[in-house]
Amino acid sequence: MFVDIAKIRLKAGKGGDGAVAFRREKFEPSGGPYGGDGGDGGSIIVEVDEGLKTLMDFKYKRIYKADNGENGRTKKQYGKAGKDLVLKVPPGTIIKDSETGGVIIDFKDKDEKFVIAKGGRGGKGNAKFATSTRQAPKFAESGERGEEKEVIFELKLLADVGLVGFPNVGKSTLLSIMSAAKPKIANYHFTTLKPNLGVVRVGEGKSFVMADIPGLIEGAHEGAGLGHEFLRHIERTRLIVHVIDASGIEGRNPLKDFYKINEELKNYNPKLAEKPQIIVANKKDIESWSEGYKILEEGLAKKGYKIFPISAATKDGIDMLKYGIWEELSKLEADYETFDDPVEFKRIEEKEDIVVKLEDGKFIVEGDLIEKLVYSTNFDDLDSLRYFQNVLVKKGVVEELKNLGIEEEDTVYICGFEFEFFE
């Protein structure tokens, strides 16, 4: 089975909590702070594997989690970092944000890696909060949450040439005789149920990659037939080779076939219609071919299209086509870009904005940094409480609340908790 799109959920590991511990030695206040830091959470890394050809591994498993970091220990020992989770994908895979559809990363190079979900940082142990005036802190920092996101993995084949055309026009046969590819071939519609890739050798040091895209039909861009599932694979190709059954043996007009297929490409994405295209008039071995070839010449040659007469069955004209494709490719720059929009990609540590607002008569303070501070604070400990208050002052929260008109004993809602305001 060929799988070229998958939606999955990713959850990086949470950082371990810092430890609250004290050593038991003479002349040390409360034994002296001795708690170590928590370990960092594991990240989720996506890596290109040239041996893979599909996204099959992601068809049945849709949720991936990296390991959490261990909590800190006594004796200032750090917790063990969570193990990273590595997901392998074939070259040509695009990762998109599931909400916006924007491209986060486009994998075009072998062995390329990208951290798609970063693990949370481990929290500091109480030993890190000791100062000359706070010699025995009874609080530690909690670990950060790891990044969570839902993404779409989408495979768009990296090929120089894309074979397009109606079903049963000879695309698979053409690929098989021009390369070492072994696609399934039979004389019925939709033999090809997945894109096939083949390397076509032209000469010493000269070769190109050709992709056989499953046959298109009218309405493919709207979901009809099989073609709509594979139109995305044409996007990366530098050159479109349009295979047409010029014999008209199935009762179709070859010129109308040309325009129908191009209309489907245009409706899927107008930029596909701008790609360079050459025409292959196949089935030269059939008697009615001459009439169809004449129709194509009269209708397309004058518009600048190169038309190659061939018979995939007898291999007549194959060498001429091979060199003709190479000549066209030599004029075009290698460009595997797609037509997708990029998305701004931000890491979790960049989200340190603090929101202070007055809403429906309530003073509200929100933000990732403040939430972490709340969960790291031991409100039964005076030192921990002072640290909490000092951070609010340093980050400008108190000043902003004053600007909004807060008064003594007013209630402040901080990340779901209620506090009374006192200066």
UniProtKB/TrEMBL annotation:
<dbReference type="InterPro" id="IPR005225">
    <property type="entry name" value="Small_GTP-bd"/>
</dbReference>
<dbReference type="InterPro" id="IPR006073">
    <property type="entry name" value="GTP-bd"/>
</dbReference>
<dbReference type="InterPro" id="IPR006074">
    <property type="entry name" value="GTP1-OBG_CS"/>
</dbReference>
<keyword id="KW-0342">GTP-binding</keyword>
<keyword id="KW-0963">Cytoplasm</keyword>
<dbReference type="GO" id="GO:0000287">
    <property type="term" value="F:magnesium ion binding"/>
</dbReference>
<feature type="binding site">
    <location>
        <begin position="190"/>
        <end position="194"/>
    </location>
    <ligand>
        <name>GTP</name>
    </ligand>
</feature>
<dbReference type="InterPro" id="IPR014100">
    <property type="entry name" value="GTP-bd_Obg/CgtA"/>
</dbReference>
<feature type="binding site">
    <location>
        <begin position="165"/>
        <end position="172"/>
    </location>
    <ligand>
        <name>GTP</name>
    </ligand>
</feature>
<keyword id="KW-0378">Hydrolase</keyword>
<dbReference type="InterPro" id="IPR031167">
    <property type="entry name" value="G_OBG"/>
</dbReference>
<dbReference type="Pfam" id="PF09269">
    <property type="entry name" value="DUF1967"/>
</dbReference>
<dbReference type="InterPro" id="IPR036726">
    <property type="entry name" value="GTP1_OBG_dom_sf"/>
</dbReference>
<dbReference type="InterPro" id="IPR045086">
    <property type="entry name" value="OBG_GTPase"/>
</dbReference>
<dbReference type="GO" id="GO:0005525">
    <property type="term" value="F:GTP binding"/>
</dbReference>
<dbReference type="InterPro" id="IPR027417">
    <property type="entry name" value="P-loop_NTPase"/>
</dbReference>
<feature type="binding site">
    <location>
        <begin position="282"/>
        <end position="285"/>
    </location>
    <ligand>
        <name>GTP</name>
    </ligand>
</feature>
<feature type="binding site">
    <location>
        <position position="172"/>
    </location>
    <ligand>
        <name>Mg(2+)</name>
    </ligand>
</feature>
<dbReference type="GO" id="GO:0042254">
    <property type="term" value="P:ribosome biogenesis"/>
</dbReference>
<feature type="binding site">
    <location>
        <begin position="212"/>
        <end position="215"/>
    </location>
    <ligand>
        <name>GTP</name>
    </ligand>
</feature>
<feature type="binding site">
    <location>
        <begin position="311"/>
        <end position="313"/>
    </location>
    <ligand>
        <name>GTP</name>
    </ligand>
</feature>
<dbReference type="InterPro" id="IPR015349">
    <property type="entry name" value="OCT_dom"/>
</dbReference>
<keyword id="KW-0460">Magnesium</keyword>
<keyword id="KW-0479">Metal-binding</keyword>
<protein>
    <recommendedName>
        <fullName>GTPase Obg</fullName>
        <ecNumber>3.6.5.-</ecNumber>
    </recommendedName>
</protein>
<comment type="similarity">
    <text>Belongs to the TRAFAC class OBG-HflX-like GTPase superfamily. OBG GTPase family.</text>
</comment>
<keyword id="KW-0547">Nucleotide-binding</keyword>
<comment type="subunit">
    <text>Monomer.</text>
</comment>
<feature type="domain" description="OBG-type G">
    <location>
        <begin position="159"/>
        <end position="330"/>
    </location>
</feature>
<feature type="domain" description="OCT">
    <location>
        <begin position="346"/>
        <end position="423"/>
    </location>
</feature>
<dbReference type="GO" id="GO:0003924">
    <property type="term" value="F:GTPase activity"/>
</dbReference>
<feature type="domain" description="Obg">
    <location>
        <begin position="1"/>
        <end position="158"/>
    </location>
</feature>
<dbReference type="Pfam" id="PF01018">
    <property type="entry name" value="GTP1_OBG"/>
</dbReference>
<dbReference type="GO" id="GO:0005737">
    <property type="term" value="C:cytoplasm"/>
</dbReference>
<dbReference type="InterPro" id="IPR006169">
    <property type="entry name" value="GTP1_OBG_dom"/>
</dbReference>
<dbReference type="InterPro" id="IPR036346">
    <property type="entry name" value="GTP-bd_prot_GTP1/OBG_C_sf"/>
</dbReference>
<comment type="function">
    <text>An essential GTPase which binds GTP, GDP and possibly (p)ppGpp with moderate affinity, with high nucleotide exchange rates and a fairly low GTP hydrolysis rate. Plays a role in control of the cell cycle, stress response, ribosome biogenesis and in those bacteria that undergo differentiation, in morphogenesis control.</text>
</comment>
<dbReference type="Pfam" id="PF01926">
    <property type="entry name" value="MMR_HSR1"/>
</dbReference>
<feature type="binding site">
    <location>
        <position position="192"/>
    </location>
    <ligand>
        <name>Mg(2+)</name>
    </ligand>
</feature>
